[in-house]
């Protein structure tokens, strides 16, 4: 059995759908961090059957954790302070996504121009809309 130490300070990203942990690892750019990171894949779960899990040790939380609310509403963030759970919550979809998803409209400026940020804003309908061409994208992947 695999044994991973508990963290004293940091964050645990729990209930990641099985097979999506590496995508989140890359999206949060965890490979460029100097913090200790553990990515566990295909972990058995009574509630979800199988899941992925990421543990990030450190005093400062990674940037862009808000995008997890866009990816999956079941993801749970657990903030650990002094070895105890300080906060546990499901992130909500952010109002704005920058370079997380790409516009699929072939006539959008982001498809034509290089180095153009892909910016989407959450609309009242609950879908993300491209800032440039108004193409809509659903929440979640």
From TrEMBL:
<keyword id="KW-0479">Metal-binding</keyword>
<dbReference type="InterPro" id="IPR036793">
    <property type="entry name" value="Asp_carbatrfase_reg_N_sf"/>
</dbReference>
<protein>
    <submittedName>
        <fullName>Aspartate carbamoyltransferase regulatory subunit</fullName>
    </submittedName>
</protein>
<dbReference type="GO" id="GO:0046872">
    <property type="term" value="F:metal ion binding"/>
</dbReference>
<dbReference type="InterPro" id="IPR020545">
    <property type="entry name" value="Asp_carbamoyltransf_reg_N"/>
</dbReference>
<dbReference type="InterPro" id="IPR020542">
    <property type="entry name" value="Asp_carbamoyltrfase_reg_C"/>
</dbReference>
<feature type="domain" description="Aspartate carbamoyltransferase regulatory subunit C-terminal">
    <location>
        <begin position="97"/>
        <end position="137"/>
    </location>
</feature>
<keyword id="KW-0862">Zinc</keyword>
<dbReference type="Pfam" id="PF02748">
    <property type="entry name" value="PyrI_C"/>
</dbReference>
<dbReference type="Pfam" id="PF01948">
    <property type="entry name" value="PyrI"/>
</dbReference>
<feature type="domain" description="Aspartate carbamoyltransferase regulatory subunit N-terminal">
    <location>
        <begin position="2"/>
        <end position="90"/>
    </location>
</feature>
<dbReference type="InterPro" id="IPR002801">
    <property type="entry name" value="Asp_carbamoylTrfase_reg"/>
</dbReference>
<dbReference type="GO" id="GO:0006221">
    <property type="term" value="P:pyrimidine nucleotide biosynthetic process"/>
</dbReference>
<dbReference type="GO" id="GO:0006207">
    <property type="term" value="P:'de novo' pyrimidine nucleobase biosynthetic process"/>
</dbReference>
<dbReference type="GO" id="GO:0009347">
    <property type="term" value="C:aspartate carbamoyltransferase complex"/>
</dbReference>
<dbReference type="InterPro" id="IPR036792">
    <property type="entry name" value="Asp_carbatrfase_reg_C_sf"/>
</dbReference>
<keyword id="KW-0665">Pyrimidine biosynthesis</keyword>
């Amino acid at each position: 059995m695999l044994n991973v130490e508990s963290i004293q300070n940091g964050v645990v990203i729990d209930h990641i759908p099985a097979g999506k942990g590496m995508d989140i690892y890359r999206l949060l750019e965890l490979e460029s961090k100097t913090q200790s990171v553990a990515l566990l894949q295909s972990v058995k779960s009574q509630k979800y059957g199988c899941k992925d899990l990421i543990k990030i040790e450190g005093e400062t939380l990674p940037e862009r954790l808000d995008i997890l609310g866009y990816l999956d509403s079941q993801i749970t963030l657990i903030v650990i302070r002094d070895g105890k759970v300080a906060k546990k919550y499901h992130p909500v979809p952010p109002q704005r996504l920058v370079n997380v998803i790409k516009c699929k409209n072939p006539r959008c400026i982001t498809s034509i121009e290089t180095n153009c940020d892909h910016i989407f804003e959450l609309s009242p309908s609950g879908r993300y809309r491209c800032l440039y061409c108004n193409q809509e994208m659903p929440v979640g992947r």
